[in-house]
Amino acid sequence: MRVSPLVESLRGKLIVSVQAYPGEPLRHPETMAQMARACELGGAAAIRCQGLADIAAIKGCVEVPVIGLWKEGHEGVYITPTLRHALACASAGADVVALDATDRARPDGRTFEETVVDFRSSTDALLMADCMTIEDIRRGVSAGCDVVSTTLSHNKAAIDTTLDDGPDLAILRAAASEFPDFPIVCEGHVHTPVDARLAIDARAWAVVAGTGITHPTSITSWFKAAIEG
C-alpha cells in the first residue's frame, strides 16, 4: 500500500476541525479562516473545515493541508452526501475531501464505492472516508480511500457531547489491528490533550480535535458546569 506524501506528513500529528454551527456568531468564512490560522500557529498539521466558502477562505489563509467537507441536512448521509458535493469541495481548494463512508442511501443514488470511482476520475484531490463502524472502515480501505477516520462512530454531533465523553478507542484499536499499515485517523470527542494522547497510544495515525479547541460555546459550558457542580 502506498501512502501519499500529504497523508504521510500527518502521521503522529494534530488536525484541528474549524467549524461553527448554523446561527452561531462565529459562523463566517473570514472568522473561520482566522481561527484556522491561529490553530496553524499553534502547531496544527492540517485543518478540517465545512462548506465551500470556509474551504476557500481557509485555503487562502493557511499553508497546511485543508480537509474539506460539505454538510447538507442533519440525518442520514449529510457529510458530503453526493459526488457533486465532493467535487465542489475539491474545486473550492480542499486537498483532501471527507465523505460519509456508510452504506446508507445517498441523495444522488450512487453507492459509496461508485462515488469514490467517479471522484477519482475527475480530480487529484485525496479522499477521507468518515466511518461509523468497523464495516465502514473496511469499506473505505477496500474502495481505495487515502485515509479513514472514526468521525461517525459516536453517531451524534460533537456539539451534543460533554467534557467527560472521550474518543472511541475501541473501534480505533480494532481498525489498527486489522489494518496496521493503513492511515486511520481518530476523530470525535477528542476534548483534551489526554484524549489526544490516548488516541495516539491506541495507534491512531493522526488525531482530529475540534470542539475542545475551536468551539468556545461548548468550552464555556464545561467551565460553567464545573464551577456550578
UniProtKB/TrEMBL annotation:
One of its GO terms (cellular component) is cytosol. Keywords: Carbohydrate metabolism, Isomerase. It is an enzyme of class 5 (isomerase). It catalyses: an N-acyl-D-glucosamine 6-phosphate = an N-acyl-D-mannosamine 6-phosphate. Its EC number is 5.1.3.9. Pathway: Amino-sugar metabolism; N-acetylneuraminate degradation; D-fructose 6-phosphate from N-acetylneuraminate: step 3/5. GO terms for biological process: N-acetylmannosamine catabolic process; N-acetylneuraminate catabolic process. GO terms for molecular function: N-acylglucosamine-6-phosphate 2-epimerase activity. SUPFAM superfamilies: Ribulose-phoshate binding barrel. It holds the Pfam family NanE. Belongs to the NanE family. Converts N-acetylmannosamine-6-phosphate (ManNAc-6-P) to N-acetylglucosamine-6-phosphate (GlcNAc-6-P). This is N-acylglucosamine-6-phosphate 2-epimerase.
